[in-house]
Request: fold
Amino acid sequence: MSETATQIPITAIIPMLTAIGDRSWEQFKTLEINFASRYGVEVWEDVFNFRLLPALDKESNRWLLVQKCNVKH
Reply:
């Protein structure tokens, strides 16, 4: 994980966890786009993989995976 990713404040991650907990895909996507725009895609990837995903319970992790797999390009 990049040093920048470890310095992202938890207040930038909590709204994403809340959106996942509320099962609000649109809100999560908006937060994800805003985060990547602010900090960069590489930092987002690190934060997502090493800080956000490990914090999820099994049901939330599955919900997020299903949402990501159902995205129409």
